[in-house]
């Protein structure tokens, strides 16, 4: 009898340990999922240097080799925490053993180019449309849901006119991301409006200070389009990069002003946030259950307090492969097969589902939203032709 009692006690103790372990594991998964969700939804105010300027030469600069700096094309280099900017051209040399690359220096827009830390990115142009690409620029405000929102207004060659393009930058980006598109749209005769949206720098934050992956930001885009209509726009083109593409798609689905949109251009867009989140969970080696739990927490009322959102972020609503039949606007979709941040798969699938609406142009080599950087002539031609076409209908 004592032996059986001991066995029962041991079994009870083992069960208690097992239960405790299970609870601890569940709590750990919940914490990991909440942390991952918050990382996705929280604006990144501090953008650290990611490149080392090793040597400044005559007409070139020697940089540390990174996955970004070794890619051909035109790029920007932020200096001094973003206060300085340099335009870089193509690769002029590399040393694999030394881990260095040499690139052409096309121009120093501001600041002093010297050895030290810097940040490499796709903003070949910096400043305003006037200072960067020579286009007359008006600084305007429009009334958004959360207050006054600043925007750049670039009139068409003939004045403002009735055809307006509204350009939407991506998550954590600045309005300067859109500068490269303005010359092609201007040449095609469009007035361009480049708005801000909630949680941008120096504009009102959302109620929770978090990104909502387009599910609330579309209302700021609606306010910008309303401003364009109030100023005489009768036809609107929408152009969105990355999360800006997700914002555009939510606007088209939810806003009555979608009827004024005649065409859409998407560059490296988030077609399905679920796919993007899965991709980043894998990159961070998170268990699939943690990634799935993070999406669940974003979209459920009980999970809002864990991830710090004011409104539920229902990722399923952002799956435009599943919702492809709901789309009704002609789309030029540009996406690189080598996009490391937003995988190209959903863009390919959307084009396959809706060949009647989607013109898909696939790039190679270019990293996230850097298609223009690797082949600006092709990008300008495609965007210019699509914008100039007279027979596209909404």
From TrEMBL:
Signal peptide: 1-26
Domain AB hydrolase-1: 166-361
Keyword Protein biosynthesis annotated: no
GO molecular function, one term: catalytic activity
Keyword Signal attached: yes
Pfam families tied to this protein: Abhydrolase_6
Keywords: Signal
Official protein name in the record: AB hydrolase-1 domain-containing protein
Organism, scientific name: Knoellia sinensis KCTC 19936
Taxonomy of the source species: Bacteria, Bacillati, Actinomycetota, Actinomycetes, Micrococcales
């Amino acid at each position: 009898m004592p032996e059986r009692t001991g066995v029962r006690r041991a079994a009870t103790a083992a069960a208690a340990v097992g239960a405790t372990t299970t609870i601890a594991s569940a709590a750990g998964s919940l914490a990991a999922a909440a942390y991952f969700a918050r990382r996705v939804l929280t604006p990144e105010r501090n953008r650290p240097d990611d490149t080392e300027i090793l040597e400044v030469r005559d007409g070139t600069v020697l940089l540390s080799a990174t996955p970004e700096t070794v890619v051909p094309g035109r790029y920007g280099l932020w200096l001094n925490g973003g206060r300085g900017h340099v335009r870089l051209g193509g690769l002029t040399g590399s040393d694999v053993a030394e881990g260095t690359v040499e690139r052409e220096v096309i121009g120093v827009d501001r600041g002093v180019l010297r050895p030290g830390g810097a940040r490499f990115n796709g903003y070949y142009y910096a400043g305003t449309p006037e200072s960067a690409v020579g286009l007359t620029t008006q600084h305007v405000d429009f009334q958004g849901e959360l207050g006054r929102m600043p925007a750049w207004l670039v009139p068409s060659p003939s004045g403002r006119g009735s055809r307006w393009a509204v350009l939407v930058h991506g998550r954590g980006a600045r309005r300067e991301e859109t500068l490269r598109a303005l010359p092609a749209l201007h040449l095609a005769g469009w007035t361009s409006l480049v708005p801000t949206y909630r949680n941008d720098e120096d504009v009102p934050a959302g109620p929770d200070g978090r990104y909502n992956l387009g599910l609330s930001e579309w209302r700021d885009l609606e306010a910008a389009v309303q401003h364009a209509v109030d100023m005489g726009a009768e036809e609107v083109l929408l152009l969105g990069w990355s999360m800006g593409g997700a914002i555009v798609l939510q606007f088209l689905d939810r806003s009555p002003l979608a009827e004024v949109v005649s065409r859409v251009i998407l560059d490296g867009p988030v077609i399905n946030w679920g796919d993007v989140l899965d991709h980043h969970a894998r990159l961070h080696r998170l268990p699939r259950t943690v990634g799935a739990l993070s999406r669940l927490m974003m979209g459920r009322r009980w999970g809002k307090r864990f991830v710090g959102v004011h409104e539920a972020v229902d990722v399923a609503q952002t799956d435009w492969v599943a919702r492809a039949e709901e789309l009704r606007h002609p789309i030029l979709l540009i996406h690189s097969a080598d996009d490391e941040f937003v995988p190209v798969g959903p863009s390919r699938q959307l084009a396959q589902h809706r060949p009647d609406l989607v013109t898909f142009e696939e790039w190679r080599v270019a990293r996230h939203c850097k298609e223009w950087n690797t082949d600006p002539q092709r990008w300008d031609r495609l965007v210019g032709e699509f914008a100039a076409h007279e027979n596209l209908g909404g």
